[in-house]
């Protein structure tokens, strides 16, 4: 779950919806980064489905009794993450093995720094999974795989930037994006390793140092959970009873 806390409410975006948003956005740069690539469909599928393992979990998200806020994708306990990640990669592999290898590498990158035994077991098992899958794709060399993985990471960050920030507010930046949005190899700019992202107003975001595309719009699916309602009904009931809203963002 991606969450922004405001004075009277939590704004909640489910991980799988964020991943679908990342696919919507990166489609506009497809001609620049995947033109003629025989694995373009697989890469886009990995981007769209990379958080599918969170789908059911985020429909009944957990409350963090220490912070007195819902758990987010950042502070959710590691062992739960390994279960969600494994489940999601398994789902993707059933439909698209190469996409699963990309998702596997994406998650292993997050967790490899942790020394917890069970987390390291996850990292090792996923390395074996990727080796098994990639043995079936001899035409994919390491450079190509890294390019595809970098594109997944970039699309993830592009969507996360929108989800983690209040539209129109350029002053308060999440710690992940203090320098801008990290720019991966497929879209690398010799002048900078980061994209300048700037809110023009409460609906419009400009992105600089990227190949130019026509302006487009995306819909962000989210829930606004009233904190007073949580105090009255509890977190889970409040979340389940709150309808989804769609927020339109224009990107130029």
List keywords for this structure.
seven-stranded mixed sheet, alpha+beta, 10 helices, single chain, two-stranded antiparallel sheet, 252 residues
Q: What's the total number of strands? A: 9
Oligomer: single chain
Strand order of the largest sheet: 1-2-8-9-7-6-5
Number of domains: 1
Write down the overall mean pLDDT. 94
Rg on CA atoms, Å: 18 Å
Q: Which percent range fits the helix content?
A: 40-55%
- Global shape: globular
The low-confidence parts are none
Question: How would you sum up this structure in a few lines?
Answer:
This protein is α+β, with helices and mostly antiparallel strands and 252 residues long. 47% of the residues lie in helices and 17% in strands.
How does this structure look, described?
- The protein is an alpha+beta fold.
- It is 47% helix and 17% strand.
- It has helices spanning 15-26, 30-33, 40-49, 55-59, 78-95, 97-111, 117-134, 142-164, 227-233, 235-241, and strands at residues 2-5, 9-13, 63-64, 69-70, 181-182, 194-199, 204-208, 216-226, 245-251.
- The strands form two sheets. It has a seven-stranded mixed sheet. Strands 3-4 form a two-stranded antiparallel ribbon.
- β1 (2-5) and β2 (9-13) form a beta hairpin.
- The protein is globular and about 60 Å long.
Topology:
Layout: E1 2-5, E2 9-13, H1 15-26, H2 30-33, H3 40-49, H4 55-59, E3 63-64, E4 69-70, H5 78-95, H6 97-111, H7 117-134, H8 142-164, E5 181-182, E6 194-199, E7 204-208, E8 216-226, H9 227-233, H10 235-241, E9 245-251
Parallel strand pairs: 7-9
Antiparallel strand pairs: 1-2, 2-8, 3-4, 5-6, 6-7, 8-9
């Amino acid at each position: 779950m991606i969450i922004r806390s405001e004075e009277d409410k939590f704004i909640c975006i489910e991980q799988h919806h964020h991943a679908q948003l990342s696919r919507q956005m990166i489609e506009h740069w497809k001609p620049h980064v995947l033109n003629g690539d025989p694995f373009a469909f697989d890469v886009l599928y990995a981007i769209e489905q990379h958080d599918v393992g969170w789908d059911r979990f985020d429909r009944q998200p957990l409350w963090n009794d220490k912070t007195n806020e819902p758990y987010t994708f950042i502070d959710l306990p590691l062992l739960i993450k390994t279960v969600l990640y494994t489940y999601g990669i398994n789902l993707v592999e059933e439909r698209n093995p190469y996409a699963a290898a990309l998702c596997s590498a994406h998650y292993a990158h997050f967790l490899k720094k942790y020394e917890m035994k069970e987390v390291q077991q996850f990292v090792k098992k996923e390395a074996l999974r990727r080796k098994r899958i990639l043995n079936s794709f001899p035409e994919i060399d390491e450079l190509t795989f890294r390019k595809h993985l970098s594109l997944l990471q970039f699309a993830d960050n592009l969507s996360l930037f929108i989800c983690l920030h209040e539209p129109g507010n350029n002053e308060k930046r999440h710690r992940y994006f203090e320098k801008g949005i990290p720019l991966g190899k497929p879209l690398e700019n010799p002048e900078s390793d980061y994209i300048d992202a700037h809110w023009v107003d409460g609906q419009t975001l400009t992105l600089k140092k990227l190949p130019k595309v026509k302006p487009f719009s995306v819909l962000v699916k989210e829930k606004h959970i009233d904190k007073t309602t949580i105090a009255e009904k509890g977190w889970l009931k409040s979340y389940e009873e709150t309808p989804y809203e769609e927020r339109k963002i224009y990107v130029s």
